[in-house]
Amino acid sequence: MATGKGLFGSSIARKYWMALTGLFLCSFLVIHLLGNIPLMLGHQDDFNLYARFMTTFPVIKAVSYLLYASFVVHAVDGILLMRQNAAARPVKYAAYNGAANASWSSRNMGLLGVFTLVFIVVHLKSFWYEMHFGKIPVYIYEDGTELKDLYTLTVTAFQELWYTVFYVVSMALLGLHLWHGFSSAFQSLGLTHPKYTPMIKIAGAFFALVIPAVFAAIPVVIYLAS
Amino acid sequence: MNFILKIWRQSGPSEAGQMVTYPVSHVSQDMSFLEMIDELNIDLIQKGEEPVVFDHDCREGICGMCSLFINGEAHGPGRAVTTCQLHMREFKEGDVITIEPWRAEAFPVIKDLMVDRTAFDRIIQAGGYVSVNTSGNIPDANALLVPKVDADAAFDAASCIGCGACVATCKNASAMLFVSAKVSQFALLPQGRVEAAERVQNMVRQMDLEGFGSCTNTGACEVECPAGISIENIARMNREFLKASLG
Question: What is the pLDDT of residues A71-80, one digit of tens each?
């Protein structure tokens, strides 16, 4: 049962928070993807400079805390919603034809979310943790500055086939999560309009296809080049 | 026509239930689904067995009493129809038909296929009305101008018959379509705007207290709704609730 009132805890408010954090995380995906383009192009200098900028520039650091908070709120809120929804139907149907009236991704957002969470934990351990707290090879930039060589760490990681496959599968699942999630967020916030809602749905489908596909292309390109 | 029916039998609210198989024969394709169960019940009574209990009333699709989750869908495979408007010609000869009650924590089973839907009544009592002073000096109805589009949208929302198919079909057993239809029919009209903020907060509060699930925006409810209520109403309720919570 959703026991809270107003903007905290009521079942509608829980969805506002899912929508707001979800859309913020979508904006993060775009920035993250743009930053990773040098990785795909094999630009070691650019990528290592970018990695230093992202971990040291104060404004980015401030936004990163908002990002961590969004991840946590989106995951915890999602788990609370799954618990509420499971409790709302304690006795299941013997026959339930979900495919008759709703898309697969919309019916499996919780499952897709849990897969994405597992991916994020593995991904953060591999790169974010190593960059912040781990031992990383040193790269000497042309002006003599010492940089953490995140580029080599990443390229080495994607020389493993299973690791590359794990990334591609994870991006496919993220795509399915976004396929429903992007446009659903607007509905949850009440942002619907006869003229603009169809455009939001198209934009959501485009986002769900293109962003994960380009993300998945990075490890594939690195693996094939190795 | 001949069918194999698998029906949920449960003798009381706290008793354990189970699926029981009944073959039925000599069913006309022109029978409604409820008439087909009537025939089964005549057979059961003649054999001295307990007839299958199910809700029904007007049998013309306007009262919202008939329910039944048929082959995994609320009101069966038809679209924009109630179970009384579903005809046996929609099925194929020899089909196995699974018939279950609405499944939701907030809709406990009373007996067999009949569930307690008074949770909806309590949501209405929490705010699904307009407070009107009826002691004389009633203004002329036409003195308040209402744009045609608003009147039409309010009327569409008001066509909800409160059957509970939205809850039954929703993977989360959410009542958002029902509550949003009731919120919308008032929020769209000037008479209802006066209490709009209180209404949406109280009705949503009651909806949560009853133990309904939340909305994942799958859209299954609007597909199965016999009255064709749109999930645009859910978006409107989300706006109304946000406005009321911030204000």
Answer: 999 999 999 9
CATH node for B3-111? 3.10.20.30
Report the predicted TM-score, pTM, of the whole model to 2 decimal places. Answer: 0.95
The distance of A208 to chain B (nearest Cα, Å) reads 17
Of the candidate CATH numbers 1.10.10.10, 1.10.1060.10, 1.20.140.10, 3.40.50.2300, the domain formed by B118-132+144-246 belongs to 1.10.1060.10
User: What phi and psi values does residue A136 have, to the nearest 5 degrees?
Assistant: -130, 140
Q: What is the pLDDT of residues B43-98, one digit of tens each?
A: 999 999 999 999 999 999 999 999 999 999 999 999 999 999 999 999 999 999 99
B68 touches chain A (CB under 8 A): no
Residue of A nearest to B99 (CA): A95
Q: Are B167 and B136 in contact (CB under 8 A)?
A: no
Strand pairing category for B3-9 and B96-100: parallel
Distance to chain B for A111, nearest Cα, Å: 13
ipTM for the complex shown: 0.94
The ranges assigned to domains in chain B are: 3-111, 118-132+144-246
* Distance in angstroms (rounded) separating the CA atoms of residues B212 and B166: 11
Residues A89, B213: C-beta atoms closer than 8 Å: yes
Instruction: Report how far residue B241's alpha carbon sits from residue B238's, in angstroms, rounded to the nearest whole number.
Output: 5
- The nearest CA of chain A is from the CA of B180 a distance in Å of 11
Judge: B77–A100 Cβ closer than 8 Å, yes or no. Answer: yes
Which B residues in the span 187-206 are in contact with A, Cβ-Cβ below 8 Å?
201, 204-205
Determine, for residues B6 and A187 on separate chains, whether the beta-carbon distance falls below 8 Å. no
Question: How many contiguous H segments (helices) and E segments (strands) does chain B have?
Answer: 9, 7
Please tell me the predicted confidence (pLDDT) of residue A153.
95
| Class of the domain covering A11-85+105-225 | mainly alpha
How does pLDDT run across B104-113, given as a tens digit for each residue? 999 999 999 9
